[in-house]
């Protein structure tokens, strides 16, 4: 691989993990009181829990799509958004965060090994590069919503 390719890989991995201009999900959630996870400030459609779960579900879908030709995506939008506003318990919260971390690591491993420009054989033109950029963009967008909610709650 070329030095330019290595630079692109490193920069996209940094973007996926939260760096430079983007905060990571873990940093955005640092110090969040458990009681604030299910709070929906006035006029906002989602709680922090619903945003975290949406990030988890969407990232899982993009990871599965990236390597499994038989993957069936959840029904949009119903199956991408949880109906419950708060996690049932601490274990559910931690499980969701762990799945996000583990699957991001899995995606990054796949990304580093892939021909990032080659269209996926089971898609309609998508490449692993497109999936990486989509994961990064989607997650960053919802992390910013989490920060806004935390600011409205007065705990950021």
TrEMBL record:
- Alphabetized InterPro entries for the sequence: DinB-like, DinB/YfiT-like
Any idea where the DinB-like domain is? 25-146
Short name of one Pfam family: DinB_2
Classify the source by domain of life: Bacteria
Protein known as:
DinB family protein
State the species of origin.
Answer: Mucilaginibacter antarcticus
Q: What is the lineage of its organism?
A: Bacteria, Pseudomonadati, Bacteroidota, Sphingobacteriia, Sphingobacteriales
């Amino acid at each position: 691989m070329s030095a330019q390719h290595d630079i692109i890989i490193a920069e996209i991995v940094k973007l996926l993990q939260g760096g430079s201009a983007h905060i990571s999900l873990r940093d955005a959630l640092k110090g969040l009181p458990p009681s604030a996870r299910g709070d929906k400030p006035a006029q906002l459609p989602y709680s922090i829990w619903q945003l975290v779960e949406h990030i988890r579900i969407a990232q899982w879908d993009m990871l599965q799509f990236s390597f499994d030709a038989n993957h069936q995506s959840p029904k949009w939008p119903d199956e991408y958004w949880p109906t419950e506003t708060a996690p049932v318990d601490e274990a559910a919260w931690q499980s969701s965060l762990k799945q996000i971390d583990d699957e991001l690591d899995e995606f990054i491993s796949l990304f580093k090994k892939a021909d990032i420009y080659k269209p996926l054989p089971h898609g309609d033109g998508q490449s692993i590069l497109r999936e990486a950029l989509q994961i990064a963009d989607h997650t960053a967008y919802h992390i910013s919503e989490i920060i806004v909610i935390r600011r409205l709650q007065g705990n950021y």
